[in-house]
Amino acid sequence: MDLKEIQNLIKFVSKSGVSEVSMEEGEFKITIKTETNAGNLVVQQPMAIPMQQAAPIAAPIAAPIAETAAPVATPAAEENSNYITIKSPMIGTFYRRPSPDKDLFVNVGDTIANGDVICIVEAMKLFNEIEAEVSGKIVKILVDDMSPIEYDQPLFLVDPS
After folding, report:
1. Nearest of 53, 55, 48, 43 to residue 1 by alpha carbon
2. ∠ CA 74-133-159 to the nearest 5 degrees?
3. What is the pLDDT of residues 57-77, one digit of tens each?
4. Contacts of 132 (CB under 8 A, 6+ apart)
5. Residues of the chain with pLDDT under 70
6. What are the sequence ranges of the domains in the chain?
7. Predicted local distance difference test score (pLDDT) of residue 17
8. Which contiguous run of DSSP H or E holds residue 3?
9. Which fold has domain 81-159?
10. What is the value of pTM for the model shown?
């Protein structure tokens, strides 16, 4: 149960006039009680809800920032400049195989052609096959199997030669 669902439940209980509501979803339990004389809500929650913490707010910097030197090109960066990066077209969960009992779509060293399925991205319970838009050889896989990915996140490096 997420925060919005809890807030909606609290609003529903306060408007309905019910004095107490208890709810259980798996290991998650919540009890909402209203005090009839003051109209205040008391929420009891024995199980902790994992929530994302807000990022700390940085204090403004009073001193001027010194200019930094231009980044120096490293051999690894120069080596990767010859490769084409295949990026994620959407946010979701990255899968390297069609199902847990099947073989991987591609491995490092495999040759791919334009239109070959190279991975699956699950977004909102829909499994979207991602097809290669380039032909070449897979040089590096940049994302672990079954990990969350962002839009435009690099997934593969392909050597087009």
Report:
1. 48
2. 35
3. 555 555 555 454 455 544 555
4. 86, 112, 113, 114, 115, 116, 117, 118, 158
5. 1, 34-80
6. 3-44, 81-159
7. 72
8. helix 3-16
9. OB fold (Dihydrolipoamide Acetyltransferase, E2P) (2.40.50)
10. 0.51
